[in-house]
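Possible regression after last week's pipeline update?

I re-ran a chain I had predicted before the update to compare outputs. Posting the input and the new output here so someone can diff against the archived version. Not blocking, just want to make sure nothing changed silently.
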Amino acid sequence: MCLLVASGLLAWSLTRDDTYVAPTPKTAPQSSAASAAASAEQTDNGPTNAATTLAAFETAVRDGDRAAARALAPADDPAAADHLAALVANAEALDVDDFSVRYVDTAGAHDSDGAWDAAVDATWRFHGFDRVSARAEVEAHLVDDGDRVALTGFGGGGRVSPVWLSGPVQVRRTPSTLVVVAGGPGEADRYAARAEAAVPAVRRVLPGWRRGLVVEVPASTRALEQALGAGDGDYDQIAAVTTSADGSTVPDAPVHVFANPEVFGSLERTGAQVVMSHEATHVAAGAWDSKTPLWLLEGFADYVALRDVDLPVERSAAQIIAAVRRNGPPRHLPDAAAFGTRTPRLGATYESAWLACRLIAQQRGEPDLVAFYRAVDRGQPLGAALRTETGMSVPELTAQWRSVLAGLAG
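New output (post-update):
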C-alpha cells in the first residue's frame, strides 16, 4: 500500500488555538507513458520538430548550456528565453542527472498564435540523494515558430509539474540535505534550517539512516498540487507531505518531502520544526510504502519529532486531553477510520497515537519502540511484534495507554 504521508496536525496544535484538521491526501495518477511507442509513428512535422526541440533542451540541461536553452525559445519571447535558461541553472544547482524528455503525444489543439502543448515522458534524478530516477509524464509548452517548433516551458495540464522544471528556484545543499524552494533566498534559508535540524533529530533515533533528506517547496498550494499531479483543494490544509518525487505509486520511486508554503509558512518555529522532523522520520523509516497501522506510523513519527522538544505534555496533547475529559479515554488504539478526514477530533487522534508510542518508549525503552516499529513495517503482525519486541500484549498496552490518558485528563 503506497501512502502520501501528511503532516501538520500536531504542529498546528503547538502554534494555533483553532483546531487543524487535514484532508486525506489522494494518490496521484501514474504516468501514462505507454502511448510513447505509438508517438513514434507520427509522421507530421509538428511532432518531429517538437522531438528535435526537446532533444536540444535535454542536451542543454546536460551540458549546462544556458545560451543553447535560450535559443530554443520563440524569437520574439525573451521572457521564455530567460525561463528556459533558469531551468538549466536549476539543473546545475541541483546536480540533476539522468535527465531526459521524450515526446509522447499532442495534448491539445494549436492556438491561433501557434502555441500548443505536448505530453512528454520525463526522467530526472538529484545526484547524491536519489537512488533511482523519477519518471513522470509532464506537459511541454510549444510554439510553431517558422520552420521550427520553439519551447516556452513545462508544467500544468493536470500532469505532474516538477518544481525545478516549473520556474526559477533557490537551492540549499549540505551533505545530508537538499532543499529546493520556488521562493526568495530568505525563504530558502528558513526551510534549509528546518531540514538541517531534522536530520540529526531523526538520526538520534534511527542512526542507520544515512541517505539524506530532499525537501521541495513549490510557490503556492496550487503549485504543490501541480507538482504532485493532485486535484484542486487536496492540500489546502496540509503543511507537508512525504511522497514520491514523480507522483507515481511505484514502491521504489525517489521519496521527497513536499512543503505547502501557505500552511508551513504560517507555523511558528517550533511547529515548523516538528513538521519537518515528522516528515524526515517518514522518509528515514520508509513510510512511503509501509503497511504499518496508522496509529504506529504517525505516532512513531511524532515521537521522533517531539523527542527533544521542550514542551509540556499538557500542551502537546491538549486536544486528546480535552476529549478524554468530555468522554473518557478511548476503548481502543485508533484504527484507520479514526484518521479519516471527516472524523471528528482528528488532531486528538494524532496526539493519542503519539502518546501510545511515547508510552512504549517510557516503559520498555526507545530501542524496543524502534524494534517494534521495524518488525511491523517488515510485515510481522502487530500483536506478535509487540509481544516479541517489548514483552507487552496489545490489551496491556491499551490498558496502560488509557490509564495515561485518564491521568492527564485529571
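Follow-up from reviewer: compared with the archived run. The first helix runs from residue 9 to 15. Marking as no regression found.
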